[in-house]
């Protein structure tokens, strides 16, 4: 199963690479399941504090769902397709969106369909200058199914999102940056280097504080500001009693770098 996604680690950061380059890293069911299993393992591993997601080969981050596989599922029945295809993909993107450790998409090429939806779901994304995005599901007669009709309008605004959802036209890394889909564009050959540098600037801080920030932002996005502020208070209260907060405050007073235990 791990052949579908390779796992490497640099310091505190796991690098997960979609590994079906001959299929443009298309997301078949086994790849989705493999990613969910790896996320479970990484969540339980205190030595890993951030994740980088990227694609094998020079052409694609991920060209989206494996059309040959899910078309056979659709042939069975709509109910079967919802259960085996749609809900599986939505579990994957929801898990990435709510993951308690920072996930950075390093988009190295095509990010179509499900590949674009992964980029929408993760909290941070860097795009190679060679990256190209698309919402092409309309070309095969379906709407996006892994959250694309919901997350892209929230990131880009309704009208900008609908242009790409309704036409299926590809869009550039520059357009993705303008829409808020990626944080920035970097030289292709420096993509992983830049992603690791971003991860390093995050993992130098308390992993508990990072988790509290991720939770507050993700939960608060779809709330009123009043409810969001209550979530923020709750996350602060959970953090204030930790050893990490005590150490950070003590280190600040003593003008030294803190040493975090994650407790």
Report a brief summary of the structure.
The protein folds into two domains: 5-203, Alpha-Beta Complex (2-enoyl-CoA Hydratase, Chain A, domain 1); 207-254, Lyase 2-enoyl-coa Hydratase, Chain  A, domain 2.
Model description:
This protein is α/β, with parallel strands linked by helices. A hairpin with a 2-residue loop joins strand 1 and strand 2. The model has no long low-confidence stretch (mean pLDDT 96). 51% of the residues lie in helices and 16% in strands. It starts with a strand and ends in a 9-residue tail after the last helix. The protein is globular and about 65 Å long. It folds into 2 domains: 199 residues, Alpha-Beta Complex (2-enoyl-CoA Hydratase, Chain A, domain 1), CATH 3.90.226.10; 48 residues, Lyase 2-enoyl-coa Hydratase, Chain  A, domain 2 (Orthogonal Bundle). The longest helix has 20 residues. It has a 6-stranded mixed β-sheet, sandwiched between helices.
